[in-house]
Each structure stands twice: as C-alpha cells, then as structure tokens.
Amino acid sequence: MTESSEPGAGPRRAKRVDAFRNEQKLLDAAASVFVEVGVDAPVRAVAAAAGVGVGTIYRHFPTRADLVVAVYRHQVDMLAAAGPSLLATSGSPDAAVRDWLDQFVDFLVTKHGLAAALQDDKVGAALHQHFVDHLVPVCAELLAAATKGSGGAGLTAYEVLRGVGNLCIGAGQDPMFDTRRVVRAYVSGVLIGEDVGRG
Amino acid sequence: MTESSEPGAGPRRAKRVDAFRNEQKLLDAAASVFVEVGVDAPVRAVAAAAGVGVGTIYRHFPTRADLVVAVYRHQVDMLAAAGPSLLATSGSPDAAVRDWLDQFVDFLVTKHGLAAALQDDKVGAALHQHFVDHLVPVCAELLAAATKGSGGAGLTAYEVLRGVGNLCIGAGQDPMFDTRRVVRAYVSGVLIGEDVGRG
DNA sequence: TTGTTTTCCGGAACCACGTTCCGTATATTT
DNA sequence: AAATATACGGAACGTGGTTCCGGAAAACAA
C-alpha cells in the first residue's frame, strides 16, 4: 500500500514502450489497409501490414470491431464537434442539418464498407454504439433547431442518422446509385412536414 | 437425332425423380430455416433441415445466393405483378407508389437479414440482380405516373428502390428504428419536388 | 430381369476468416 | 545481472462457403 494512491484500478507498472509503438503501428497500418481494401479487410492483413503477429492485434484490441472503432474515433469526434459550429455558420438550421449530414455522408462514403460494417451484428455492435453515443446528441440538437417551426416528419435523431447511414451502404461500388442525391431526398422528407403528398 | 425435337439445349434424359424431390425438400427447408434463423443461416443448417448432404445443395444451387433467390423468387414476382394493379386501385399515383413500396418493405422486413443480404457482395450479387430485373421496371412505371406533374426529386427508379432496400437493413432488430416511418419520410422526399427546404 | 449407363447423393476435405492459447522474447525493476 | 511482469508471434481451433469424388440409385437397353 505504499504506492497505491488510486484504489484498485491502476496498473502497477506503466505500459511497455514497445507496446505503445505497436499500438500506433497497428492503428496506422489498419487505417491504410482499410482505405485500400475496405474496413472488412482480414485481421491478418492488418497484422502483416503492421509487421506484427495476429496475437498482438488482439492484445491491443479485444476484437476486430474495437480496432475499427479506434481507427475512426478521431473522425467521429470531429464530426460531432462540427455540429454546433455549423448551426452558427450555416444560413439556416435546415442548411445546418443538410451540411452536417453531408459531412456524415462524406465520412462514410470515403471508407469502403464502413456503413455496411455498422450493420454487421458482430463488427457493428461496438461501432454502432460509439457512433450513437457521439453523434445522436449532435444530430438531435440540429434537428430540434431545424424542425422548430414545421415539426418535420417526426423521426428521432437516431432514426435520421441511422437512415443516412443505411443509405450509404454500398456507396461507391455502384455507379447507378448516387448516394448524395438519395440522401438529399431523404433529408428533404425528414425536414418536411408529414402531410406531404397525401392526395 | 431421332428424338431431338429441340435443337442443342435440351438434356438427353429427364431429370431424375429423386432429384426433383430433393430440390423441393431443399426449397421448403431453406424457407423455414430462413424464417427461423435468418437468410444468413449456414448452408449446413439448411442441408440438415432438408435431410440431405451439402453436396446436394450445391448440385441444385451453384451457390448459396442462388438458393436464396430461388426461395424468394415467387414473392418477388408477386410484388412485381402487384404494381400495375395498384395503379388502378389506389386513389392516386402517389398513393400507388407508397402502397407498393409499403409492400416491398413488408416483404423485406419479414425476412430476417434479407435486406442486408442484398448488399453482401457475395450473396448479394445474384439476389440483387434478380430484384433489379424484376422490380425496377415496375417501380419506374409507378414513379413515372406519380411524378408526372411535380417532377419529384429526380431519382431513378433504381435509386428509389435501392434506397428503400437499404433503409430496411436491420429492421426488426432495433426497436428504436421504425422502418415504416423512416421509409415514409424517404418516399416523401422522393415524391416532392427538389426545391424543398432551400432557404 | 439383368446389365449398362447416366445422374445424383453424402460428407470428408479445403480454404478463408475471427479468435484463442501458450512458449518464447523483451522491457522494466531490483 | 537476476528476477519479474509484460508483450510478442504464430500455430491451432471453430465456423462458414465451396469443391471433390467414391459409391448409390435411377433410367434405359437387352
């Protein structure tokens, strides 16, 4: 008890420096492998790219999903941070919502298979959780501002966000499917009152 | 050439009766396994349920995707057939589009994982193709009638259909995501003119 | 019926992937 | 340097799709 200033949880020895290095190598390698072959790249491919064994991956990231989350954590956080500022810079709350969701789409579209991975029950659980925790509140705030007057279609922020996420699945792999345009239509439906087109 | 009334393509001998029986057993077994554990059920599970070996599956259906397509072929065809009649019975072209897409959603939602399977590059290719071939023309016809006046959001029938399909991914596995409602918003955005919400 | 031919069946075997395990190597501490 | 905690590599396991092939069975011929 001579050096345990914190009760219970603290590790008795600092993390080894090679462990730190490997974690970073892993994150870098994963990031570049993910852009090259998609987020569904085999774990072994990431390990090889990082020059480590598979065991090392699992020491740092208990499951493949955790690795994916770690790789994209920064970008998710930046997206979350961009919400409030857009509310100020964009012309209207509606525009802020559209702009923010555009950024969300850009984020998903540029990562091959990320949107699809979000749905996978195995890989998706952790990813999904992280996305929801960080992005839904921001989306809710933007939506609240945008639908203050009209009321919108009555969707929850989660539904809006997940809808956009779903629409991005397979983006880029299909020239006949213009993700931007489709999402724009969806967002229009979300922001408009629910009595549209009712005969 | 004594008994070849058809040139070239006909098999020289009729299919064996046990082969017919097995194909039917396979389709029945697959259908029930798919409703119980989802369309991503292991091939071996279907084989076991049908009381045949895996080899038998692959004799009748070259790949897992072909089995899935075969199982749902009837329902896809019925959905395709329902389009034109809805145009007559529904009050307006708009309503026809909404009703038809509702049926599409019902179809996808009641099959666990079907919508997701449509995206999978492996399983999805054959499925996707079949869906596109049979459903897109019908959707195009309905859309043409509905957007004759306003113009709509300018999406192609394929984009509309695939958008709805994407939105159905994961349906039923998430109480916080009301697929019906989300799709309704999307369809509203599709049918409305594209100048909505533009400040 | 018996023999021959063609088709079909079963399931072991193969490959790819996520994950676990453990003997060995290395950093840190004494 | 010795001791100890920590991390590493990669073989091994479980699961899933798919292929292969020896044997069984149906169809046809006699």
UniProtKB/TrEMBL annotation, chains A, B:
Domain HTH tetR-type: 20-79
Molecular function via GO: DNA-binding transcription factor activity; transcription cis-regulatory region binding
Pfam families the record matches: TetR_N (PF00440)
Keyword Transcription regulation (UniProt): yes
Protein name: TetR/AcrR family transcriptional regulator
SUPFAM superfamilies, A to Z: Homeodomain-like (SSF46689)
Highest taxon in the source lineage: Bacteria
DNA-binding region: 42-61
Protease keyword on record: no
Keywords, sorted A to Z: DNA-binding, Transcription, Transcription regulation
